[in-house]
Every structure is written in structure tokens, then in C-alpha cells.
């Protein structure tokens, strides 16, 4: 539902009484059980009373309320559009902060428009802190990828055998997790059928769960501090009971049954059990050559995974240059075959034949996997990577440890899924593909003669320049008597409509055209497209996979990012860039990158003379080239960037 970014109005604090009332409504709607008051401690003087068990901390009503809707929560109205007809949806979002995170949308309510039912829906951030709040269903990772794109969960996509959760009835809110991470809900939707009553999913058809929110949508991405959405954890405590049932169902399947299932349904077999972890504790230390091979294979695995996950992104999503620390933390460690704390002590850079990261990078350069460079005679960085190397293209993935298994072994080691996900401070705009289209919306003066009469919100009521040209040609060709001169097809005679609707201004050009009674075809097209009283200019910014039916055009000329060079006190030059937000660029993250690339101080502040919330990034020095390069990496082409140099002396 939230494939398009919602417009969220000013946030306002919730009164304590309102917060408690909303939390109580959630407790009632989702049948959350409140533990009874703890019994009084038995008297030690009563021998008939059994020895008390050790006291345990049980949740009470206050703690449950705070877990569902934390103190100091905020609320705001929101609006967005859904569906090909861009129908408007309005409602309320509730924003709060859990102990270890930043402000995120925790609940939302749909009050007007398609799907509006006034019910409070939890976001994935709420589910990650409140186990068993919703019935949890499972689907293969391949299907989960489709759900993240906005698809609904079909009945054949339900993983594992019945029985399904009793609460998964028609109309109930349910969560869905991937078999790769069965303890982590990633999708929230409404059951379209009686899932709990299903006896078998093979051979069935139809929708099982209609999606309303998922990890990766615009609600997940929203943050009051303009930070990107927080990636899902690899493992969550509290959901294990349901997962154990899933594991039992998978374990009871016979060999014949498993061979009938698609490969995607068997991903749980890659999980490492606690018994497997225990068996590797007494492992022999590998040789130096084995550790060297593991490091090289880990690097190849990282390149292979980047290429698979980001086939169309520049450098397949890899941010260049790669620092030595980033090489080890992001491209090596997550892909090492470390299944226990003991193994983690073996696979370290100091136990390789290279002994340090610099020599390891030099080795990769010698193998022509990377191109490296020494900076200032000390640090060695990777400038380029060969993703087309036969060793990368022909790489065969191997099993990596799961997060759950490593935690049970007593030490946290990133898993393959964690390595594939971007780090929490990564910039989601890097590698995006943007298309800026200039459009025209006809006014009443040209309707219905040149353009059909359509509703204001109809996507077909917006025309590209070529569409306007074609419409004009169709009109000219359809007129009788003909408007095209038999001697020169480029000359058009004016008829009553053109004279009374197009050339109506008091300008000398229009008066001269009316006096001649003729105009060139190109001149007529220019006159129509440049007059905002005839065609109102609009624009739309499309990202990968979006069409005009997905994004509502905005009035005005197509926007540009503006890079301004100014001279401050003395001869000091600074470079500022504004107009970032319209392209989906987060100013604070761009400032962080420029600070590293330019080795110069940066700042982010409200842009002077711009609407509130439009920020500018300031960098010390003439950094126009670095900024243009950073914008291009984020999909902003050169023609959408204006450079204003105010440092030049006036003549």
C-alpha cells in the first residue's frame, strides 16, 4: 500500500491519557493477555506451604502499554495515493522510539479511501519488539522478494504444512516471515481466506494475505531524522515457539515429500543446529594456506553476492574506493566459514600469509581482481573491482553460518543475509535510477478541440512534448478545408479556433501572425507549449519500475539540483548544494560522504530562501566536481544540475 511516499503533516505529542487509551484499544483488538497479579509470597512459618519458586519478572499492564506505544509518542495525519487510479488514502500514524532506536512509525490507521477500516495496524518495527502480537505465517525467500515489491501473498506461497495458526482467520491481521529468517516478521497484511482452516496448500489458488505494509516500503523508510529505514535483524527472541513448530513440520517430511517441494521451500536445511555447533567446537586449527584460501573465497563470495543482488546498479552497489577496514568488515568477515567462537580465532588477517590488510589488497591486485592505490605512501585502498572475472562469474556459493546458530555458540558472527544487507548507515539513494519527465496538462482553451476532456486526476491527462506534437498533427490533418499549404507543408493557415484560442495575446508576434493568417508548423507548436495558459507545465520523477500511473505529476518546471560557489571572508571559497530532497537524496548522508571524499568540513542547514525542510549541504573549498560526481552516483544526471559560480569577478 505504501509504495508511494506519504505526506505526513506536523507531528504532535500524544497526551498520556490518549496514549493509554490507544494502547488499551490495541490490547483489546489483538486479544493481548494481561498476566494476573502475582500471588502473595507464602509465609515461611506455614509448613504446609510449598517452597516458593524463584521470582520472575512478569509484564504488567504498564509495561505492555509502553512496549506497544512507548512514552512520548507522537501522532500525525498522513495522505498518500494507491492503485493505478491514484486514489487518495488518509489516516493517522503514531511515531515512537524504542530503547535502542530512533523515531519510527510504530502504528498506522487507515481512515479514508480504499481499505479504510479504522483499525490500528502495527509496522514491522512494532513486531520486532512485541513477539506473538500477530499470527505468524511463513513463505520462501523467493516469494518474500515479491512481497517486498508490493505483491500479495498467494495461497500456494504459504510454506510448511498445516495446521496454520488458529488466529489466522479471514479478516485478521497477520505477519509473514521468510524461511531464511523465520523469527523475523517482514510483512503485515490481512487474511483474505480462513488460513487456519486450510488442510493443504498444494494445488490451491487465490489470495491468502493482502499486504498493507512491509520492510522496504515508505512507512518503513520514514524517519524524523531523515535516516534510511532500519534493516531487519537476523534473529529475534520470542518468536522461537512458533518456529519450533515449523522446524518439526519440516523435520517430519519424508525424503519423497521433500523432493516434491521447490528448492526455495528447503532453505531451512541450511540452518545450523545447536548440535552442529557443538560438534565443531573441537576442530583442528586450519593451515595458513587454508586460511588464505578462505579469505580469497570470501572476497569472491562478496563480489558474487553483490552482483546477484544489484545487477543494474553502478558497481553493483559497491561504494568505491573501498577502505581497508571496510574490506575486512563488509566483504570478508561475513563470508568466512566461522561456525563457532573457536573458529573465529583462526580466521583472522594476522594468521594469513599476508599478515596485514595492505599486503592482502596487493595480492588481490596481483591476481587482477582489484585495482589498488597507495594514498600518501601509507593506506592502500581499492579503486576498482573486476566483477567480470571468471572466478566471480563462475563462483559456487557455499554454506554460511546462521545468526541463530552463532548466537547459541556464544558469539555473534554476521551471516550471509546480514552481509548482503546494506549497513545501517548506508545511503539508499546511491545507485538509484531516476527519470525526470517534463509534462503538459491542457487547459480549458484547448479542450476538447486538441485534447480530450478528462478528469483532473486522470494520468492520461498529462502529455509529453512528443504527445503534444502528435496531437497537433492529428488536428491539422483532420481539418476541412485543409490547413496545410499545398506549396509548403510546413506552412499552416489559421482557422477560427487557432485565431481565437491560441494567438490571443497583444504581443507583436501574435498580431503579426493574425495579420498574415499563416504560421509555420514548428512556430505553432512552440507557441502552444510555451504558453502556460494553454498547456500548464508539470513534471514527474520516476524511479526504477515506476510509471506515470504510479506517481502523481507536480505542477511547475522540472526541478534541478543547484550547486553554488561562494566566496566567504577573504579568499575562502565554499560550495553549497540544494534541491536534494526532490531526488530522494538525504542531505546528512551526502554530507558525510563529501566530508570523507573531499577531506573537508561539511555542514547541513536550512536553505536560505527555501521552504521549511529544504536543506543545503555546505562544503569547504571548490568541490563542484566532487558534488557532481556524488549526485550522478545517486541517479541525478548532469542536465539536472545547475552550477552557479558567484566567485567570479564582475566585469
> How many distinct folded domains?
4
Which band does the percent of strand residues land in?
15-25%
- CATH topology label of the largest domain: Sulfate adenylyltransferase
DSSP summary: helix tally: 21
Low-confidence stretches: 38-56, 246-281, 403-425
Give helix % range: 25-40%
First-residue to last-residue Cα separation: 56 Å
In the CATH hierarchy, what is the architecture of the largest domain at level 2?
A: Roll
The number of strands is: 23
Mean pLDDT figure: 81
Protein name: SUI1 domain-containing protein
Region (Disordered): 38-61
InterPro entries: EIF2D, eIF2D_SUI1, PUA-like_sf, PUA_eIF2d-like, SUI1, SUI1_dom_sf, WH_eIF2D
Organism: Penicilliopsis zonata CBS 506.65
Detail the topology: elements first, then pairings.
Blueprint: E1 7-8, E2 12-13, H1 16-29, H2 61-68, E3 74-82, E4 87-96, E5 104-112, E6 120-122, H3 124-127, E7 136-139, H4 141-148, E8 153-154, E9 173-178, E10 185-191, E11 207-214, H5 218-221, H6 240-251, H7 255-260, H8 274-279, H9 288-309, H10 324-332, H11 341-346, H12 357-366, E12 370-375, E13 379-385, H13 390-393, H14 403-409, H15 416-420, E14 434-442, H16 465-478, E15 491-493, H17 496-501, H18 508-516, E16 518-520, H19 521-530, E17 535-543, E18 554-555, E19 561-567, E20 573-578, H20 587-598, E21 602-606, E22 615-620, H21 624-633, E23 641-645
Parallel strand pairs: 7-9, 19-23
Antiparallel strand pairs: 1-3, 2-3, 3-4, 4-5, 5-6, 8-11, 9-10, 10-11, 12-13, 14-17, 15-16, 17-18, 19-20, 20-22, 21-22
Helix pairs in contact: 1-2
Amino acid at each position: 500500500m505504501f509504495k508511494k511516499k506519504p505526506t505526513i503533516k506536523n507531528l504532535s505529542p500524544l497526551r498520556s491519557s490518549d496514549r493509554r487509551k490507544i494502547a488499551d484499544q490495541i490490547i483489546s483488538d489483538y486479544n493481548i493477555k494481561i498476566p494476573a497479579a502475582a500471588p502473595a509470597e507464602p509465609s515461611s512459618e506455614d509448613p504446609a506451604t510449598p517452597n516458593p519458586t524463584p521470582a520472575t519478572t512478569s509484564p504488567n499492564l504498564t509495561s505492555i502499554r509502553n512496549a506497544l506505544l512507548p512514552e512520548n509518542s507522537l501522532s500525525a495525519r498522513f495522505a498518500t495515493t494507491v492503485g493505478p487510479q491514484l486514489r487518495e488514502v488518509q489516516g493517522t500514524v503514531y511515531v515512537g522510539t524504542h530503547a535502542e532506536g530512533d523515531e519510527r512509525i510504530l502504528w498506522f490507521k487507515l481512515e479514508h479511501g480504499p481499505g479504510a477500516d479504522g483499525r490500528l495496524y502495527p509496522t514491522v518495527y512494532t513486531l520486532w519488539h512485541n513477539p506473538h502480537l500477530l499470527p505468524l505465517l511463513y513463505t520462501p525467500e523467493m516469494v518474500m522478494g515479491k512481497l517486498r515489491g508490493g505483491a500479495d501473498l498467494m495461497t500456494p506461497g504459504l510454506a510448511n504444512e498445516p495446521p496454520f495458526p488458529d488466529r489466522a482467520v479471514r479478516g485478521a491481521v497477520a505477519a509473514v516471515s521468510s524461511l531464511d529468517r523465520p523469527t523475523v516478521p517482514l510483512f503485515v497484511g490481512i487474511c483474505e481466506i480462513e488460513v487456519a482452516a486450510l488442510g493443504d496448500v498444494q494445488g490451491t489458488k487465490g489470495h491468502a494475505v493482502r499486504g498493507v505494509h512491509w520492510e522496504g516500503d515508505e512507512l518503513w523508510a520514514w524517519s524524523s531524522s531523515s535516516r534510511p529505514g532500519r534493516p531487519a535483524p537476523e534473529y529475534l527472541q520470542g518468536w522461537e515457539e512458533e518456529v519450533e513448530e515449523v522446524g518439526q513440520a519440516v523435520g517430519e517430511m519424508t525424503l519423497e515429500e521433500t523432493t516434491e517441494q521447490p528448492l526455495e521451500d528447503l532453505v531451512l536445511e541450511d540452518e545450523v543446529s545447536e548440535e552442529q555447533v557443538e560438534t565443531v567446537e573441537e576442530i583442528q586449527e586450519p593451515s595458513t594456506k587454508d586460511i588464505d584460501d578462505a579469505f580469497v573465497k570470501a572476497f569472491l563470495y562478496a563480489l558474487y553476492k553483490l552482483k546477484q543482488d544489484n545487477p543494474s546498479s553502478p558497481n553493483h552497489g559497491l561504494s568505491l574506493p573501498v577502505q581497508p577496514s571496510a574490506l575486512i568488515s563488509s566483504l570478508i568477515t561475513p563470508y568466512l566459514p566461522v561456525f563457532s567462537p573457536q573458529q573465529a580465532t583462526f580466521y583472522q588477517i594476522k594468521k594469513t600469509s599476508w599478515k596485514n590488510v595492505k599486503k592482502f589488497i596487493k595480492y588481490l591486485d596481483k591476481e587482477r581482481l582489484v585495482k589498488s592505490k597507495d594514498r600518501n605512501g601509507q593506506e592502500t585502498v581499492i579503486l576498482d573491482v573486476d566483477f567480470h572475472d571468471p572466478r566471480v562469474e563462475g563462483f559456487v556459493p557455499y554454506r554460511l553460518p546462521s545468526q541463530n546458530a552463532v548466537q547459541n555458540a556464544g558469539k555473534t558472527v554476521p551471516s550471509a543475509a546480514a552481509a548482503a544487507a546494506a549497513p545501517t548507515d548506508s545511503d539508499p539513494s546511491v545507485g538509484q535510477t531516476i527519470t525526470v519527465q517534463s509534462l503538459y496538462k491542457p487547459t480549458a482553451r484547448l479542450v476538447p478541440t486538441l485534447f480530450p476532456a478528462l478528469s483532473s486526476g486522470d494520468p492520461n491527462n498529462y502529455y509529453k512534448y512528443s504527445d503534444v506534437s502528435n496531437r497537433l498533427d492529428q488536428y491539422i490533418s483532420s481539418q476541412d478545408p485543409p490547413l496545410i499549404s499545398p506549396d509548403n507543408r510546413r506552412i499552416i493557415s489559421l482557422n477560427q479556433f487557432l485565431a481565437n484560442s491560441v494567438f490571443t495575446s497583444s504581443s507583436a508576434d501574435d498580431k503579426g501572425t493574425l495579420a498574415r493568417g499563416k504560421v509555420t508548423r514548428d512556430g505553432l507548436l512552440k507557441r502552444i507549449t510555451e504558453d502556460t495558459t494553454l498547456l500548464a507545465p508539470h513534471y514527474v520523477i520516476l524511479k526504477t519500475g515506476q510509471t506515470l500511473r504510479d506517481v502523481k505529476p507536480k505542477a511547475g518546471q522540472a526541478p534541478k539540483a543547484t550547486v553554488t560557489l561562494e566566496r566567504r571572508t577573504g579568499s575562502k571559497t565554499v560550495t553549497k548544494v540544494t534541491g536534494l530532497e526532490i531526488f530522494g537524496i538525504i542531505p546528512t548522508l551526502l554530507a558525510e560522504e563529501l566530508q570523507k571524499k573531499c577531506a573537508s568540513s561539511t555542514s547541513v542547514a536550512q536553505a536560505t530562501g527555501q521552504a521549511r525542510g529544504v536543506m543545503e549541504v555546505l562544503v569547504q573549498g571548490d568541490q563542484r566536481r566532487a558534488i557532481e560526481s556524488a549526485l550522478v552516483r545517486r541517479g541525478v544526471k548532469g542536465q539536472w544540475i545547475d552550477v552557479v559560480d558567484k566567485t567570479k569577478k564582475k566585469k
